[in-house]
Amino acid sequence: MSKELLGALDALETEKGIAKETIIDALEAALTSAYKRNYNQAQNVEVSFDDKKGKVHVYAVKQVVEEVADNRLECSLSDALQLNRGYELGDDIRFEVTPKNFGRIAAQTAKQVIMQRVREAERTIVYNKYSKYQDELMTGEVEREDNHFVYIDLGNVEAVMSHNDQMPNEEYRPQDRIKVYVNKVEDATKGPQVFVSRTAPGLLKRLFEEEVPEIYDGTVEIVSIAREAGDRAKVAVYSSNDDIDPVGTTVGPKGQRVQTIVNELGGENMDIVQWTEDPAEFISNSLNPSEVVDVIFDENNEHACTVIVPDYQLSLAIGKKGQNARLAAKLTGYKIDIKSESEVSKETSDIMNEDSDSDDEL
């Protein structure tokens, strides 16, 4: 070993942020294994690296005992006292056993340890950097696509976007720059793995924070989001400031703010509705653009209700393939059963007739 190694350790500490002591500890442990492996030794050994001169020393460690049962691991008290009168039973004595040609093995081992530590440090740096971006919006460049993922370059790391996280109305071509939501960051065996999404509700929230200053600063709050990515989304907003219209603020003048987000998401329609503490009013708002006559809550299920709408509004309330009702249920957290006024009227009439028949029988 030479002073070149010391220079390399100093450089790694400066450039990669890897503490010299960390590498030395790993190096000593690796050299201990290398010594035992290359010299078929089973004794208790320690390897010491001199960080001043760059030299390696191998020591056999033996315990002081009354009678020696294994001379590879033990030293008699009488022999120990000849070395130093201060030794006592149970003490450990270190005998240097550094082989003459151990320098070559040490150099090879040092190279392997340093390379491993550099890889680990780089992985840690990347993981620490991108784990801070979890649940955040980032812009990346599409690199390629296979049967499993779209691969996106975020700078120092390649992120992956699964099929479920890809917008059904989008195609991803190499060199396209897109905004993605960081779903998860894992410190995997092969290196940090960053998972991103274009379909997550969190993407929509971050886009509104970028576009609407009042949402970013907390004046207007996004309470909940229900989204069928690429098609339609509902966003419930609220403001504790009575002077602010949360829906109008979010939509923007002539709908410019929300239109920017619609364009970013390839035409995904947006319903911005006002959240209120009154669940009936919130449920009514969530079924926008349809009108609501009444909301009747289920006595046996606090998260279920029946919503009554005008006959001519029934299909609008339910929406194409039930989408409007489905999104409203996701937005509010209620199971919503939508009925027309005539349907409710008929049910009420039938019940009254049944009651009347029962009275006649009596």
TrEMBL record:
Note the subunit structure: Monomer. Binds directly to the core enzyme of the DNA-dependent RNA polymerase and to nascent RNA.
Pfam families found in the cross-reference section = KH_NusA_1st (PF13184), KH_NusA_2nd (PF26594), NusA_N (PF08529), S1 (PF00575)
- Where is this protein localized, as stated in its record? Cytoplasm
Q: Which family does it belong to?
A: Belongs to the NusA family.
**Which portions of the sequence form the region Disordered?**
342-362
Source organism phylogeny: Bacteria, Bacillati, Bacillota, Bacilli, Lactobacillales
Using the record's annotation, list all stretches that form the S1 motif domain.
Answer: 133-199
| Full protein name | Transcription termination/antitermination protein NusA
Which InterPro entries does the entry link to? Answer: KH_dom-like_a/b, KH_NusA_2nd, KH_sf_prok-type, NA-bd_OB-fold, NusA_N_sf, S1_domain, TF_NusA, TF_NusA_bacterial
Q: Which SMART domains match?
A: S1 (SM00316)
